[in-house]
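Re: Re: ligand-bound prediction request (bumping)

Still looking for help on this. To restate: I need the protein modeled with NAP bound, output as structure tokens. Inputs repeated here so nobody has to scroll up.
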Amino acid sequence: MADYKRYDVVIIGAGPAGMTAATYASRANLSVLMLDRGIYGGQMNNTAEVENYPGFDSILGPDLSEKMYASSTQFGAEYGFGVVENIEIEGHNKIIHTDMDNYIAKAVIIATGSEHTHLGVDGEEDYQGRGVSYCAVCDGAFFRNDDVVVIGGGDSAVEEGLYLANVVKSVTVLHRRDKLRAQQITQERAFDNDKMSFRWHTEVTEILGDGDKVTGVRVINNQTQEVSEIATGGVFVYVGLKPNTQGLENLNITDKAGWIMTDDRMRTAVDGIFAVGDVRAKELRQITTAVGDGSVAGQGVYDYISALPAEVKSV
Ligand code: FAD
Ligand code: NAP
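Reply:
Sorry for the wait, this slipped through. Here it is.
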């Protein structure tokens, strides 16, 4: 372990939650490393417009991400690349293993967020990247001349459907109920948009293709049991989120669904390990709540490290 780089705090994930935790912890004079398996910004990079972040009428997700990154590094926090594979506990030390390097920290903040759930129907994996997408902002432009379908009824499905309506020929939202889960204002915009339509009580049972690319979806109306096909070149799947907690099972800090349980100071059941943002078991997954969590944990790690025995603190 002699060659492992040491930090006071290692933050896993550089989305809004991790970046805010880095701002607070480094501003408290702790040495901080933010590790991410990709570019900083997290889900904000896949969001076109953010209209509910205080201080901005509207801001592009990647622009907000750049601003947060600048804040998070201004007091000396470092940003590094690496897929965190697991965390070992040895006394007060937390050993963070990544696919590249290993690190030792006095405290760890898990800010790994969540990712899109797959639908789990035939054709979905086969045609991923060939008509099946989980990111309208990334892939919408490939479907300029297409009638696309969006699956789901939450904020992601309806907002990304609205984004797609600006880019493609038409958008049909396929939802398994007849009520959307999305915020009211978003629903109203979608209902008012001439390029958007909705098919209710509609479940996709298969994504169809010609071997090369998507050609349509097979659906069933769960009220009438009628089966039909919808021709489309693009299928955008937004059927919910699952937590990024793979590799952390040994810590035993999640609920049954894998979301990390914390107290209101973002402390998990393991001393010196905190969790923030979407990866937590919580009600509202937003940028505002992620940064709120991040600030609480950034202060929390300072309190935690300050209370460690002098011989541990000084290493
Ligand atoms: P994330 O943003 O998910 O960041 C987690 C980071 O952890 C990622 O960068 C990931 O690469 C990294 N990571 C994961 N696992 C590992 C690992 N093992 N090793 C290293 N790094 C890892 N909220 C709003 O407030 N307004 C909006 O307009 C809005 N629009 C949205 C649109 C869409 C399509 C989606 C999906 C979400 C939207 N949200 C919006 C929700 C918002 O984006 C999230 O609540 C927020 O990004 C959560 O922040 P986070 O830092 O907890 O996680
Ligand atoms: P979500 O809120 O969990 O919605 C998932 C949708 O997919 C629901 O409508 C659900 O149907 C449907 N669904 C789930 N499993 C399905 C299946 N197997 N087959 C067909 N449909 C299925 O997920 P989300 O929309 O990705 O949002 C996740 C979080 O991010 C939420 O907290 C959301 O508020 C937040 N977010 C916020 C914004 C914003 O603030 N602007 C934007 C995007 C996301 P039912 O309705 O029948 O359950």
